[in-house]
Amino acid sequence: MLQAQALDNRLVATTGDDVLVDRIVPGAPLVIAFGFVSWTTRPAFDFYGRLRKLEQASGQHLNKILVRDSGNAWYHRRITGLGNHVDETALALRELVRRIAPSTISTLGQSMGAYAAVMYGLLLDAQQIVAFGPLSFLDVEQARLYHELRWLPVMESLAQDPPPSGYYDLAALCRARATETTQMHLVFGTRPDAANAGAGASESVNLDAMHAQRLAAFGRCTLHPYPHSGHAVVQHLIDTRRINGLLASCILGLTLDDEPMPDVSREWQDWVAENLRLGCAGEQLVAVLQQHGFSLASSVAAVDAARAKAI
Q1: Which among 23, 28, 155, 239 has most CB atoms closer than 10 A?
Q2: Are residues 196 and 303 in the same domain?
Q3: 117 shares a domain with 54
Q4: Is 21 exposed, middle or buried (0-12, 13-18, 19+ CB in 10 A)?
């Protein structure tokens, strides 16, 4: 049986386990955070530091279960310490939830972890599901239909050697299990991602937006699109200092003060100057800078400074 322990950054970074349970406070909210894919190193646990910051900002202890899929199988195969397939893993997580006795359950993840957040969030009847850039299916036929080739080898592997249980269409799982108490937050970039070796030519749309739309009709779903981000929307939110506020809002319903952005960097100043030279309107450049998290005042100042230098 998994034992709870007081987690810290060093333990989370160095442990060989695939599941960690933080110190339990019965009656406090529970967040189950699922790690993202990594092809070059063992997948890391995710969001531990962000959840610690949320505790500090809110004064609210959060029960935490951290999970990673060392096999990069979108949480469909063995998760050491929990189970060998989805239903078995869900059963073990449900037992952990029973032991913790939280006030609410939230699931959280990005990319591969986002798929798990939606899947296990529905199977565990979580109140909040926060998913950054999730796929909505792992089905080969649908992937080819939608030209979703980014992780096709994973889907083909699951189809060729299927585990005893699996959920390959999250829209179908939503239809079966989402209720009016299921609050689902889908966070995604809408900027098309560049081409990669597996996908061929770059897409004219961001496929994450398509996946979000497939899930949007179920439960109480809120879409959070970010037009200046591609698939790596969490990094975009970190860079623009919006990630902490978003997590506080989605998980605890709290509104945090906006975090100030630094002054516009030299790289951005050069970008502004170049686009002014090419004839872009200053108002458009201010809007783009604001989309990247810079304040209105610093954005206007950067454009004004670039104009002054050009005279």
Answers
A1: 155
A2: no
A3: yes
A4: buried
Q: Judge if 142 and 224 occupy the same domain.
A: yes
153 and 238 belong to one structural domain: yes
Statement to judge: residues 196 and 227 lie in one domain: yes
What is the average per-residue pLDDT within 118-142?
98
Round to the nearest angstrom and report the end-to-end CA distance of the chain. 71
Cβ neighbours of residue 253 closer than 8 Å, sequence gap 6 or more: none
Euclidean distance between CA atoms 96 and 87, whole angstroms:
14
What confidence category does residue 130 fall into, taking pLDDT thresholds of 50, 70 and 90?
A: very high
**CA angle, 51 then 166 then 80, to 5°:** 55
Which pLDDT score is estimated for 203?
56
Asked whether residue 261 is domain-assigned, the answer is no
CA distance 67 to 44: 9
From start to end of 63-162, where are the E strands?
63-67, 105-110, 128-132
Which contacts of 240-243 are long-range, i.e. CB under 8 A and separated by 24 or more positions?
Answer: 240/292, 240/293, 241/293, 242/293, 243/50
The pLDDT tens digits of the residues spanning 76-114 come to: 999 999 999 999 999 999 999 999 999 999 999 999 999
Q: Is 244 in the same domain as 208?
A: yes
Instruction: Tell me whether residue 180 is exposed, middle or buried, using C-beta atoms within 10 angstroms of its C-beta: 0 to 12, 13 to 18, 19 or more.
Output: exposed
Residue 259 placed within a domain: no
The answer to whether residue 257 sits within a structural domain is no
Identity of the residue numbered 214: R
Same domain, 206 and 303: no
Our count of domains for the chain comes to: 2
Output phi, psi for 149, to 5 deg: -105, 5
Same structural domain, 202 and 56: yes
Containing structural domain, residue 292: 266-309
Q: Are 74 and 12 in contact (CB under 8 A)?
A: no
- Dump pLDDT digits (tens) for 240-272: 889 999 999 999 999 998 887 777 888 899 999
* pLDDT tens profile 36-90: 999 999 999 999 999 999 999 999 999 999 999 999 999 999 999 999 999 999 9
